[in-house]
Here is the input.
Amino acid sequence: MPRLREVPRAEADAKVAQPLYAQLFGERDPVAEPGTATGTRGDWWTVFANSPDTLRHAAQGFAYYRSPDRKLDPVLRELGQTWSGWATGSQFVFSQHCKSLRGLGVSEAKIAALPVWQTADVFDAKERLVLAYADRLVCHGGRVPDALFAEVKAAFSDEEILELTYITCLYHMHAIMSRALRTEFDDRDDPVVEVAAPEGFDALDFLGGRRKE
Here is the structure.
């Protein structure tokens, strides 16, 4: 379950949350009867409904990147979003945008190769540039070498670059928030935990720190 309270339909904001609930869940109360068409529980929406202004702002972001007014090719946009999910370790963002790539006709070979795009030979020059740039945004905190940015500038317009930067960073934020709040597919325990030593193990002996009498 997510770390924040889920807002049931009866308590949801009438202007912001309830229309979105109706669109995604029909007549159901998504807290009592969770589930969306994409296979998620839908608790991202019920958690964000705790703050109608935040939910509204997020929903506007979805409308922004899907708008036909965007100049950036939607496949290239989705590559940036999907890499944001993978690199941040958000199973939710990664999974949802793999679905989006598939819906745009991207091949299974490319989707499977995303985690190893650096050595994969299935991406064209523009796709590799997008992934390299997205990697610098997400994994290096925006530290983009001049040489890489010059290649991006040669391949894309300023408007396309701004859209790519904004949308990739937006989904980096969504990936971080989903992990922190444990929404949807990110509701899972951290896999990195201490594995206990066997019975009789002595750390001092292991470190060579015990004095010999």
Remarks:
- The radius of gyration is 22 Å.
- The mean pLDDT is 96.
- The first helix runs from residue 17 to 25.
- The chain is about 55% helix and 0% strand.
